[in-house]
Amino acid sequence: MGWAIALHGGAGVPLTLPPERRLPREAGLRHCLEVGIAALKAHKHPLDVVELVVRELENHPDFNAGRGSVLTTEGTIEMEASIMDGKTKKCGAVSGLSTLVNPISVARAVMEKTPHVYLAFDGAEAFAREQGFETVEQSYFVTPENIERLKQAKEANRVQVDYTQPDHTSHVDSRMGTVGCVAVDNEGNLASATSTGGLVNKMLGRIGDSPIIGAGTYANHLCAVSATGQGEAILRATAARDVAALMEFKGLSLKEAAAYVLEQLPPGTTGLVAVSSTGEIAMPFNTPGMFRAAASQDGYSEIAIWGSPLI
Ligand code: ASP
């Protein structure tokens, strides 16, 4: 048994990406994987590892979380995040954050510093400020790329993106994805974290799968799972919990459980990353691609977007 880590930068990947849009994301994935590996090698608890890695992904402007969060139909920001510890099943979640630099850390504070699991909107913002988390003006998130994404989504009268269709017209990525990380240490401690800006052009107040324990994020003593894709489909499927339940009640391996859950979801909607307590890794997706990276103690390491590994 050894440590393992897997992370994603979203399943909203078009069929092709020009180098100027692909390379910064590959570099971001590589950097975040290195951060996670170093933390695991330094014997940090997986909860600290997934928070650390997701913070890095949130700070990267090319992923849809934190800095790169996409805009609501009103041009505003409503970020959401959740985190879960496998052994204790303690978890925390936030929705409707509009000024926080790192929503994942607020989710962790909800878990550790309140009697609750989930805070949203004004209450979540007030709690985060009271805890002293870093805030910024909304202009930090409202980048020219994000304004263009919203404009394109409005022109196409689109909220949920059809990931299966080629995107030849767009010169910015209108389809980006959530970020997430799962990790296990060599004592079998597991944790999962997911963070997102949601969907471009979403209604005000819309909550997706990412902050919902059991849908976008789940961890228990057997596995840790983080999902990405069309939140409404993932919510209906309780995707992350189903992976754990198939292992728990049916004795499936992580790979079998993750593949089964993906098969039940509508094509073109979902991807997930998962690790098991024994260091197994699964990263299935039914979209054209998923920004992803993974490594384990035995020397395996992979960074990939479409079907085949890049390294
Ligand atoms: N799952 C996210 C949501 O629906 C979006 C994504 O993963 O791309 O909010």
UniProtKB/TrEMBL annotation:
GO biological process per UniProt: proteolysis
Protein name according to UniProt: beta-aspartyl-peptidase
Listed Gene3D superfamilies: (Glycosyl)asparaginase (3.60.20.30)
Active site residues per record: T178 (nucleophile)
Pfam families membership: Asparaginase_2
PANTHER family linked: L-ASPARAGINASE (PTHR10188), N(4)-(BETA-N-ACETYLGLUCOSAMINYL)-L-ASPARAGINASE (PTHR10188:SF6)
InterPro entries recorded: Ntn_hydrolases_N, Peptidase_T2
